[in-house]
Structure formats: C-alpha cells, structure tokens
Design a protein that fits this description.
Order of helices and strands of chain B: HHH
Distance between the termini of chain C: 18 Å
Number of domains of chain C: 2
Structural class of chain C: mainly alpha
Order of helices and strands of chain C: HHEEHHHHHHHHHHHHHHHHH
Largest sheet of chain B: none
Number of helices of chain B: 3
Radius of gyration of chain C: 21 Å
Oligomer: heterotetramer
Structural class of chain B: mainly alpha
Shape of chain C: globular
Radius of gyration of chain B: 17 Å
Chains: A mainly alpha, B mainly alpha, C mainly alpha, D mainly alpha
Number of domains of chain B: 1
Largest sheet of chain C: 2 strands, antiparallel
Helix content of chain B: over 70%
C-alpha cells in the first residue's frame, strides 16, 4: 500500500476545516454535511490503514537537519488508535451536525472540529517527536477555540484550559528533549526499552505527566468540570471524553511499553499506579456530590482515567491490556453518556438534576442508551466496562500492593452509586415541577444514531469480549515486541495469564480467569454495596414524597415507629454517608480540587504580583538610577572578565 | 610614558561619568558627555602616537568629532524641546515614564 | 553591488526634504520603493549565499587605494533581509499613521538614514566603521523617538541618548585599546592580531566594554532601562523598527561580530552572556506581566525575547546559534506586528491603556485578528513561527547541559503566554469598553501592513524548514566557524 | 615623559573639573571650550596636527557656540539647581578611582607594541583612501544631525483634538479626521 495514504486522515480534515471557515454563511447544512462526509472518508482510510497489516506503513520525508524529519508510521498501536479516533469522529460529527446546527458561531465549531480531527490523527501517526509536538501543540489552539464557543464568558475557562494544558505540554517538551539528549534520536520508533533511571527517568516522568494531563489525570484536571459547564456539549464528548483520552493513554502506552521498560513494582510503576489510584478515588468522590448532569459526567471522565493509568502502570500484561481496553471502552460509554446529556439538555432544557426526572418514558431510546453506558462505566456484567475493569483489578492485584485494588474497588462502589443517583433522578421518579420544558419529546435521529451505535458497541464488546481483545487489543500487544521481549510472566498461580505465550491462551479471561474468581466476587459485592448506599440515599432524600404516597405511613403508631427507625437509619446513614463519605468528598472537593485551582490562580498571581511590584518600583524613571545600573553591570563584568581571568 | 596618558584617559572618563551620575541640569549632563568624548579622543591619539602610526588614528578622530557634533546638536535640540515642554532643565522633571 | 544597500537609502534620505515639497505623496511612494528595492536586492543574493558564496566589495573598485571593504555572508544577509522587510512594512504603515504628525519629509529622511546606517553596520568589515554606522542609525533613532515632540517622547529620547552615549564611548575606548595593541581595525586582521598580541586582562577589559556597549544597545538587563521608555514613546512604525530591527542590528549583530568573530567566544564571555540572557528573559517577562500600557508591555517583552536570543548565542553550539538566529528573525516579524497593532489600536481608540480598552475585537476585526496571530507567535503556539525557534533554543540548552536554564526558558514562555492572553482578554475580547462605540477599523495601508506581517508569522511557521535551510543555516555556518578557532575567515580576505 | 605634556594633562583634568562643578552654566561651557583648546595643543604635541585642528575648530568652536546659544535660549528662568553633595563626595571618589586607575593602567599598558609606521605616504591618502567608508558614514551622520535638528525644532504639530477643533471651526466638522 502506498504510504502516502497516511496523509489523507491528516490533511483532509484540516483542509476541510479551513474550507468551512471561508464557506459563505448562507449555505444551510453544507458545513454539517462536509464535516460528516470528511469524517466518514477519514474513517474509510483509517480502516484501510488498519487492515494494511504487517509491519505497518511508514511515510518518511527528510525535513531539516538535527534529525527532525516528517515521519509518519502506522504500525499496530497507532493504527488501532487511529481507527478508534476516526470512528468517534464520524459519530460525533453526525451528532454535532444535529446539536450545533443552529448554535452561536457554529461555523467556527465545525472548522475547529475538523482541524482537531486532522491534528489528532497526525499526533497519532507521528513517528518523530517534533512532528508529534507540532500536532500536539496545535490541538491546544483548537481546544481553546472550541471552549470559547460555549457562551460569551467561556474564554475564562478556555484560558484556564490553555494554561493548564500548556503547562503539561511544556513538561512533555522538556521530557522529550531529555529523552533526545539520552538517545540522540528524534525518531520515536528508534527509542526502545530504556531503563528509566537518571535523566531518562526524569524524561519518563515528564513525558508521562504530559500524556496523563492530556488524558485528564489529576492534578491537571481542573479545567474539565468548568468546561463541562462553559463549553458546547459535543465538545465534551469529543475532546475530554474521547479524543484526549485516546491520545493521552496512547502516548502513555507508548512511553511505558515501548520507550521505557516498566518492571512490575519498580519505582516508575508505583509512580504511575499511585497517580492512577489517587485520581480514581478523589475524582469519584467529587463526582458523587455533583448535582449537575454534565459536571457529574466530567468528574467521572477524570476518575476513569485513573483505571487506565493504574492498568498500564501495573507493568503486568493483563493490567496493561486492561488499561488499553478500558481506554477504548471508556471512550465509548463516556461518549454515550455525554451524548445522552446533550440530548437531555437539548430536549429538557436543563441539566440540573433537581429539575429533571421521569424522562425514561418520554425519551426511551436515550434512556436505554444511558443505562447501558451507566452499567458499563460501573462495571456491571456483561457490559464492556466490566471486562476491562476486571482486567485492571487483576493486574493491580498481581502487583502485590493490596492498596491499589482496594482503591479501584472503592472507585467502583462510588461510580455505581453516583450513576444510580444520576439515572434515578433523571430518568425515573416524577417530572420535577421546576422543569423548564414540560412536553419533552424523544430527540432527533441524527443524535440518536450515534448514541445507540456506541451503546450497542458497549454491549457487543462486553458480551463478545474475545472479539475486541483478540482482534484489537491482542495484535497491539502481542505483535509489539514489548510483550514478548521484556514483560515477564507474573508469578501468580493459576490466574496468571501469559501474554508471552502464543495463540492458544488467547486472552481467555472470561472462563478461567474471571468466572470463578474471588476478585470478580469482590467486584460484585461492590456493586451491591453501591446499590444499598443508593437505596439509603433515596430513602433519605426522597423520604417525604415516598411517605406521602403511602397512606399507611400516616397511621399514628406506625408513624412514630417509622420515624424512629428512619431516624436511626438516618443517623447511620448520616454518620456513614454524609459524615464520612459526603463530608470527605466535600473536603476533597474543597481542599484538593479548589486547592489546586488556588495554586493555579492565587498563588502564582501572588508571587507574580509581588515580584512585579518590586521590579516596577526599581524602574522609577530616574536617569541617574538607570545609569548606575549600567555602571554597576559594567563593574561586575570587568571584575569577572578582566580581574578573575586566569 | 604611555601609561600616564591612559591614566588620564581613565580619569577624564571617570569625571564625565561622575558628572552624568550626579548633575541635575541637562546642559551639565551634556558637558559630562563631552568630557567623556574627550577621553576617547585622547585615547585614540595616544594609541596612534605610541604606535607611530598616527594617520589612521587621526582620521578616526576626525570622524568621531563629526559624529560628536551631530549627537550634541540633536541632544541640544532635545534639550530645547524639554524646555518647551517642562519649562525648566531639571533632569528630575524627566521621571514621568516609570514602572 | 553591496554599496547600493547603503548609498540608495542615503541618497533618498538626502533628497527627501526637497522632494517632499514637489508632491505631498512623494515621500510615501519613495520610501516604499526604496525599501522594496533593498528587499529585492537582498532576495537576489539569497541563492548564492545559501550555497556558501560570499560577496565582497572594496574601495578599490572606486579607483581608490584598496583598503576598506564591504562583505556579505549568511549572517549579514539575514540581517539585511530583516531590515528591508520590516522597514518596508513600517513604510506602508506610515502612509496613514504618520499623517497627523506632519513633516513627513523629515520623517522619511530620518527613516532612510536609520536604514542606511543599519545596512552599513551589517555590511562593513571594519570595527570603527561599524561604530560609525551604528551612530548614524542611533542619531536618526534619537530624533525619530522624539518625533512627536511631546513630553513623553522627548523625555524618552533624552534618556535614550544619554545612556547610549555612555555605551558608545565605552565601545570607542575598547576600540582604541584594541588599536593600540594590534594596529588595525579590520575584523579579519583583528581576529589574528588579538590572538597573537594582547594580554588576557586587556582582552577582558575590552570584552567588558564591548559587552556593556552592545549590551546597552540590545537592551540586556541591567543595561535595558532606556528601552521601556523609548520604544513605547516613538511613533508606532518607529517602535516596530526599533524593537524589531534596531536593537538586533546595533546590539546583537555587532556584539556577535565582535565576540564571535574577533574574540572567538571565550568561555567566560559565554557564561557572562548566559547570565545576562537569563536575567533579561526573566525580568523582562515578569515586569511585562504588570504593565497596563500596551506598548510598554511589548517593550518589556522585547527585553525578554532578546534574552532568549542571547541565551541561544551564549550556548555557542550550532543548534543554539540556529535557534538564536531564527528567533531573531521571528521576533522581528511578530514584535513589529504587535507594535503596529498597538499603534493601530491607539490610532482607532485614542488610548493604549489596557484597562480602558475592551471588546475592540468586534470593532477592529483586522487588527484583532492579526493581533491574535502575533500573540500566538510570540507565545510559541504552533504552527506559528515563534514555536519553532523557542523550541530549538530550549533543545539546544538541554543538549548543552544547561538544564536549569532550559527550565527557566520554559517557565518564561508560560509567563509570556500568560501576559499576552491577559492583554488579549483585556483589550480585544470581552465587553466593549465605554466610550469606544464609534471606533472604526484603521485605514487601508495600516491594515495592509499588519496583514502582511501576520501572514509572514504564519508562513514562517509553516515553511520553517525552508527558512532555516536557506536563510538561517548560512548564518549559523559563518558564526560557528568562528567559535574557538579565532581564525576569522568569513569576512574580508 | 614630556613635562609639558604632563602639565597639559593636569590642566585638562582641572578644566574638566571646573566644567563639572562651576555653578554658572556659561562659565562651565567656557571651561569646556578651554579644555578642548588644551586638548588640541596636546594632540598637536602628540604628532597629530590634523586632529588638533579639527578639535580646535569644531569642538572648541562650533560645539561651544551651540552650547552658549542653547544656554542663552533657556537662561531667562531659574534652571535646575545642582545638589551640593557631589562636590563634597567627589574628592573621595576621585582618590579611590585614581588609585584603581593607576594600578589598572600600569598593568595593562606597561608594554605597548611599536607599529610599522604609517601605511600611506600622506594623511590625505589615509583619510580618503584607507578610511573612505568612514567618510560615507560622516556624510550620513551629518545628514542625521541636520534632519534631526530640523525635525525636532519644527513647529509643534497640532494634536488630534486641536486639529479636529480647527476643522470643525473651518467647515463645521464635515470632514472627519480620524
């Protein structure tokens, strides 16, 4: 196959995006049609590239000196990610066409959308660090642009996103430069299995930080919940939920599987796993207390990154496979969730939970899609999230540090609890009297198709999990030299799955690793705990409505008994959930999340202001003062250059 | 001895610099500038004299004197403008641009 | 041929006040034509210079006894192109902008003299001659800074003059010492003579004097204090010329010629330059963060960006020099663009106080758009040109094991992004400030100049391989040959 | 060391001090002129007659005239009053600097190389031949000075507001300036 084909998924969307910018305003549906068509063509070529097989396609154009070449290389991992990204681009283009059609500055939105798609494809295919950086940094601009499209004050959030992402990207640039000074090559495929020690270790940490920040891990996450409110909704499904996860985890996978060797329980492995576990727990606790559809989802988008980082960080084959599979699954169900959020926002007019309720009958397809995705993200069998999460649990357990699987399970409990809350309050119960739109209808086909396709995918990938594992994940890992060369088979009894062994084992997770495994049992127990917590919560929260519908409840004696019981339950619940969990969650929210914000916003500003004030005072406009600086500087130079000379 | 001349070159440069650092009157500042220029002239001529190659140093000095006149002329035009704007010749009134 | 670079602007300058009386529009046309001519002349030389050829011209060809010569290598050509390019756009911009200042004849005459001086400085092979042309450009720039004749302008020009003169006297003293010891002014001869015939302490004193002098001209901290006054006070096209070109030609270029080509970049000078560069980088950026005046903020940002260039040059590795020269080129484009935009904003709204501006993006679409491009370029956002040069400098720093400095450079570029976004938000986005309802877009020629420069920023980023290969690389070659070896074979015979 | 040259150098420094510390600007300017004249004599004695002539005519003559005329232009009102402390601090600073100066210069210029004599037969050949590009620079810098002075001493341009007012007064504001 001609390697020039690699240029199509990059150039076509970018050119189309520029074309959209200059299209005349009057043409209805043209920009939307163009976006969908271009995304579809890009998907076709991505599929072609995926099918190319073998050692992959490589496009190499010498560019300038110092080893900087225009170098694209589609081998196993990139072409898999490219296919996934292209798939999401098509579905989201379709969805955006419906959602953004009549919105403010929609032309710019579609231009940014297409350019983002092209740049992301470029970043996936890049095989030279400079080329990677070029596309990677270019995404910052479209990120900024897309967030500003939300409403008139969105630029504040956009600036925040830009500065935080920029900070992380600069960390990555430094990491890349360190790596370059270690290896002496800018070509990514030539960097192989370094031991992360010394300068290379610094490079690993910096690059991993950059990649994880792209995926939205803590502490680089704070812009995502703000963007959930301020940015247009398809943006949330497109960038933070889908593309940025794909890109960030893709790069993290390359860093930890190809560029470096991560041994199980090495310092780097612990570093990654710690970030993963902390992200899971903190973000899910923040998600639990949110009262807005989109904001709750956005915190889960952060929390789920933790599972992927944890999985990859384990350094155990099953964990790594689970992390990458979870990335794919997460992109699918989180996309669906955001899309249902968009549908709810468009049809019901709000995303505040207290103003929603009883939508399941009115929007059945959206509701079903939501519940499928919610069960997926919570790890309910047989949906796809269950499989990948179990693999991550296994991997984490195999490292021997029990704290990491426990953190992951805690995450699972609250994930399910918060989705029960979200689903219950949105789709069941009664219509809220405060609801802004009373006659809610099912949303239109252009929005239904993407969400139902992806939701269906969640089911398919869960039930027939061998399919994606065998055809998508396995080739990535099995054919990658990493797996056969450096990952050792973990010594963990019968459950150990050896990826180093060829085909017969075939990732047979479902039967011998999962079905009769106590780890699965613990996970199921987590789901039950979550359900119970939810029931307590519902009883407490909706107590009055519930009691009012029950006439028996008003009987004098029973009433007192109920009240007493309820009070005890309340106390228990309050002590456990409100006191510990909710209080803890609020504390985390206040201290960690807003604390990081405070560092970004206040501390930096304060330090800046202080030095600015001092320096400005010295520039006082007095000529003699300025001249004395010159003379003083000259004196120091003379002392250094003439007196101290050997 | 060449050294003696260069000691005076340094001295004149110092006197000019001292004048620039401490004077308040703009014309005094220009006088300080002139004194510094003289030290440069003396330095060049002494250099040529010491080497016994005084043609090049002289032509350099002549060029420098022409430049000096131009600078002083522009500087004096600036002084007149300052005077028109502020009504005095105090360098302390020229501290509006700061920060 | 090379003499034309000096003679043509000089002749135009001499005739300008006379021609201005013939027809009012003549100075504008003549200025643009002259600059376009020198630009064309520069472009004509690119191909051969990129192929390694060097051009010479000497006084012998005028029938005079041969001695003083002009020469052009890659570094000179790069600077010549920058001068012509930015001057051309500044001239285009001046057509409308300088209307209300009056005395266009004098203005263009001084402008042309400044260009002639800079061209001469870049082409000459003689140290004292370099000083002479430096003063030509400087005298013209003093008058141009004070061209508005109001208090701010005059104050700035006076301080600029008085500080510059100290610097140039220092340079002169150093030259006289060098002459005493070596008996020559030609850069080629000097490089040889310095190596053989000067004691180390005298070299140290001369280097300190040169560093102070050219450091003041290029506004390195702590010699920078004149720049935040002078650059904002000048008329906008002159600000663009000063910040975009003059500090680089009379500061960086001259410094590099002396330090690299005569003294061969001794390690002490390299570390001194590194300290000066880092100081400039950080202090310029921090103070810029606290400015409310748009142009003053840009001026401090110039100090910061000069810091990047100096740091790149201080490394002395080919990659470092490439980063520095590329950043020099890029800074010329985006800083002139931003200064012209600041002028356009002031022209349209009557103020450049950021707190009084706001939401003018809707009223000034062209200016707002080009300003955004300038912001992205200077902040180092791809695919604009500033990204590549900053990246190369940082890469070079790490490669040369200056990891701390690299981290500072990265942090500074974040601060840069920060204050430019702050400026964008205050001035261009958000709600329209009170009193700006009747603001209209600037006239055609001003908009044209800014659009051209914005396009240049974008093209510079997209075609950066071509630029580095054809414009920057010859300069890098001619400079890196000079390091350490001290045998200067690039200029003169 | 020629004794007369030493005396000339000392007088040079003395007049420089007078030019700096005399309160009357006119007297200071005249001290500067004396200093230039003495420098011219010194240059003559250092085998540099052409430079001496230039120093005498241009610096002692032309620049002094410029100074005096500007002083006369600005004399009417009380100009800046000098601070007193510089004159008291100066002797100390002079002694400190003088010691450093003597030490430094002695170490730097203890031996100076002897050249090979003048390369050209005449001064004219040197100036017009060897340094011909300097002449070009001189022409340019003279232009710079002249145009600079012309530009700076032109009638002050009207501000935008004044000009607008003038136009409004003339044609009732039909032509908008900005």
């Amino acid at each position: 196959m001609n390697p020039n084909i690699l240029l199509i998924p990059i150039l076509l969307p970018v050119l189309a995006g520029l074309a959209v910018l200059i299209l005349p305003k009057g043409l209805k549906w043209l920009k939307e049609g163009l976006a969908v068509a271009v995304a579809a063509v890009a998907l076709y070529y991505a599929a072609l590239i995926f099918k190319s097989g073998g050692e992959g396609l490589r496009l190499f154009v010498p560019w300038t000196s110092f080893g900087i070449n225009f170098d694209l290389y589609a081998y196993h991992l990139p072409r898999f990610i490219l296919l996934a990204a292209a798939g999401f681009e098509v579905l989201l283009a379709l969805y955006s066409a419906a959602f953004m059609h009549d919105k403010w500055r929609s032309r710019e939105y579609f231009a940014y959308f297409l350019i983002t798609a092209g740049l992301a494809n470029g970043a996936i295919l890049a095989n030279n660090f400079m080329v990677l950086l070029f596309f990677w940094e270019g995404l910052l601009v479209t990120l900024y642009g897309m967030i500003t499209l939300g409403h008139k004050q969105s630029h504040i959030t956009a600036t925040k996103a830009l500065i935080i992402s920029g900070l992380a990207d600069f960390a990555m640039i430094l990491g890349i430069i360190f790596l370059w000074s270690v290896t002496g090559t800018m070509t990514m495929s030539e960097v192989r299995f370094l031991e992360p020690t010394g300068l290379a270790g610094a490079a690993f940490i910096l690059m991993a930080l950059g990649a994880m920040a792209k995926a939205g891990a803590m502490p680089f996450h704070t812009w995502i919940p703000d963007a959930a409110i301020d940015a247009p909704l398809p943006f949330m499904a497109y960038l933070p939920a889908a593309l940025e996860k794909l890109l960030g985890i893709y790069l993290l996978a390359r860093i930890s599987l190809e560029f470096f060797t991560i041994h199980m329980n090495s310092a780097m492995s612990i570093f990654l796993m710690t970030i993963g576990a902390v992200t899971i727990v903190l973000a899910v606790m923040m998600a639990l207390v949110q009262k807005d559809y989109k904001k709750l989802l956005s915190f889960h988008a952060i929390s789920q990154v933790g599972y992927m980082i944890l999985g990859i960080g384990t350094g155990v084959p099953i964990g790594i496979a689970g992390g990458i599979f979870h990335m794919l699954n997460h992109a699918m169900y989180k996309c669906t969730l955001f899309l249902t959020g968009g549908a709810v926002e468009k049809e019901a007019g709000t995303t505040e939970l207290k103003k929603l309720g009883g939508l399941f009958k009115l929007m059945p397809i959206t509701g079903v899609a939501f519940w499928i995705a919610a069960f997926s993200i919570s790890g309910v069998p047989p949906f796809n999230g269950f499989v990948s999460k179990e693999m991550v649990f296994h991997g984490a357990f195999e490292t021997g540090h029990i704290i990491f699987p426990i953190a992951a399970w805690i995450g699972a409990i609250f994930t399910f609890a918060s989705f029960l809350k979200l689903g219950h309050s949105t789709y069941f119960g009664k219509r809220s009297p405060e609801a802004p739109v009373q006659n809610v209808k099912e949303t239109n086909w252009a929005m239904i198709i993407p969400m139902s396709v992806i939701a269906l995918g969640c089911v398919v990938f869960g039930v027939f999990n061998k399919l994606p594992l065998k055809y998508l994940i396995e080739p990535v890992l099995m054919k990658s030299p990493t797996m056969t060369e450096h990952l050792t088979v973990p010594a963990h009894g019968a459950e150990a799955v050896s990826l180093a062994m060829p085909a017969p084992v075939e990732f047979g997770f479902w039967h011998h690793a999962f079905a009769m495994n106590w780890i699965v049992g613990v996970s199921m127990a987590c789901l039950v705990i979550a359900f119970l917590i939810h029931q307590y919560g519902v009883k407490k929260g909706q107590g009055k409505a519930y009691l009012a519908s029950e006439p028996i409840h008003h009987l004098p004696v029973l009433n007192t008994l109920y009240d007493l019981a309820e009070a005890r339950v309340f106390d228990l619940y309050h002590w456990f959930v409100n006191g510990l969990v909710k209080g803890g969650a609020w504390a985390v929210w206040k201290v960690i999340d807003r604390g990081i914000d405070a560092v970004y916003e206040n501390l930096l500003t304060f330090v800046g202001n202080f030095s600015i004030k001092v320096l400005k005072e010295y520039h006082n406009g007095v000529y003699a003062n300025y001249l004395s600086w010159v003379v003083g500087g000259f004196a120091l130079l003379v002392i250094y250059l003439a007196v101290l000379v050997k | 001895m060449v050294v003696t001349y260069f000691i005076f070159v340094g001295l004149l440069f110092f006197i000019g610099l001292y004048c620039l650092l401490t004077s308040r009157n703009l014309i005094k500042l220009l006088i300080g500038l002139e004194i510094m220029a003289k030290s440069a002239v003396l330095s060049f001529i002494v250099a040529g004299w010491a080497r016994g190659e005084n043609f090049v140093s002289q032509s350099v000095v002549i060029t420098f004197i022409v430049i000096e006149v131009s600078i002083v002329a522009v500087a004096l035009a600036l002084v007149i403008n300052v005077y028109k704007n502020t009504g005095n010749l105090d360098i302390r009134s020229l501290a509006k641009l700061k920060g | 041929m090379l003499l034309l670079f000096i003679i043509v602007p000089l002749a135009v300058a001499a005739l300008m006040p006379l021609l201005a009386r013939i027809w009012k529009g003549l100075p504008d046309v003549l200025g643009m034509v002259t600059m376009a001519f020198t630009l064309g002349l520069g472009l004509y030389h690119i191909r051969m210079v990129a192929a390694g050829h060097r051009y010479f011209w000497d006084t012998g060809s005028l029938g005079l006894p041969l001695k003083l010569s002009l020469a052009m290598d890659g570094f000179s050509l790069l600077l010549l192109l920058i001068i012509s390019l930015i001057s051309l756009f500044a001239c285009i911009y001046s057509v409308n902008y300088m209307e209300h200042y009056g005395a266009k004849g004098s203005y263009y005459a001084l402008f042309m003299l400044m260009v002639a001086g800079m061209n001469g400085l870049v082409l000459t092979t003689d140290l004292f001659n370099m000083y002479v042309f430096l003063e030509v450009a400087a005298v013209a720039s003093y008058a141009l800074v004070a061209f508005g004749q109001k208090h701010d302008e005059v104050e700035a020009a006076f301080k600029y003059l008085m500080l510059s003169v100290v610097a140039t006297t220092g340079i002169l003293l150093a030259m006289s010492f060098v002459y005493l010891m070596t008996g020559t002014f030609g850069i080629t001869d000097l490089a040889y003579a310095v190596k053989t015939g000067m004691n180390a302490q005298l070299i140290g004193l001369c280097l300190a004097l040169f560093l102070m002098g050219f450091g003041l001209k290029s506004a390195m901290v702590p010699f920078h204090a004149w720049l935040p006054d002078a650059h904002p006070s000048a008329p906008a096209p002159i600000s663009a010329m000063l910040s975009g070109v003059l500090i680089k030609v009379s500061g960086i270029y001259a410094l590099v010629r002396v330090v690299y080509n005569i003294f061969g970049l001794p390690p002490q000078v390299s570390s001194a330059l590194m300290v000066l560069g880092v100081l400039s980088m950080v202090i310029g950026a921090v103070v810029a963060l606290g400015q409310n005046d748009y142009k003053r903020m840009l001026a401090y940002s110039s100090i910061s960006q000069i810091g990047y260039i100096v740091v790149g040059l201080a490394i002395g590795s080919p990659l470092g020099i490439m980063g520095a020269l590329f950043h020099l080129f890029n800074h010329a484009t985006f800083k002139s663009l931003l200064f012209l935009n600041a002028g356009a904003t002031e022209y349209a709204t009557g103020t450049r106080d950021l707190t009084k501006l706001g939401g003018v993006n809707n009223k000034l679409p062209v200016t707002g758009f080009t300003n955004t491009i300038g912001t992205f370029s200077i902040a180092g956002v791809p695919p604009f040109n500033g990204f590549w040069s900053k990246l190369i400098i940082i890469v070079a720093l790490v490669e040369a094991n200056y990891i701390g400095v690299a981290a500072i450079a990265v942090a500074t570029s974040i601060i840069t992004l920060w204050y430019f976004l702050q400026m964008q938000r205050q001035a261009f986005f958000g709600k329209l400030a009170a009193g700006l309802e009747k603001v209209r877009e600037v006239p055609f020629y001003m908009a044209l100049a800014t659009i051209c420069l914005a396009a240049l920023c974008l093209l510079g980023g997209l075609f950066y391989p071509w630029i580095t290969a054809n414009l920057i690389q010859p300069g890098v070659t001619s400079l890196s040959n000079a390091i350490g070896v001290n045998s200067f074979i690039n200029l003169g015979q | 060391m020629d004794l007369l040259n030493l005396i000339l150098l000392l007088m040079l420094a003395g007049f420089a001090l007078m030019a700096v510390f005399l309160k009357d600007l006119l007297k200071a300017a005249i001290s500067l002129a004396f200093m230039s004249s003495l420098l011219a004599v010194l240059l003559y004695r250092l085998d540099s007659p052409f430079a001496a002539v230039f120093e005498l005519s241009v610096v002692a003559g032309l620049i002094t005239v410029l100074f005096v005329s500007v002083i006369a232009l600005t004399k009417e009102e009380e100009t800046a009053k000098e601070a007193r402390w510089p004159a008291y601090v100066f002797p100390l600073a002079l002694v400190v600097f003088g010691l450093i100066d003597i030490k430094v210069m002695q170490s730097l210029f203890a031996t100076t190389p002897q050249g090979f004599g003048n390369p050209e037969a005449s001064f004219g050949a040197t100036l017009w031949g060897v340094r011909s590009l300097d002449i070009l620079g001189q022409i340019a810098v003279i232009f710079g000075g002249v145009f600079g002075v012309l530009a700076l001493l032109r009638e002050k341009p009207l501000t935008a507001k004044q000009k607008e007012d003038a136009i409004i007064a003339k044609d009732g504001g039909k032509e908008k300036l900005w």
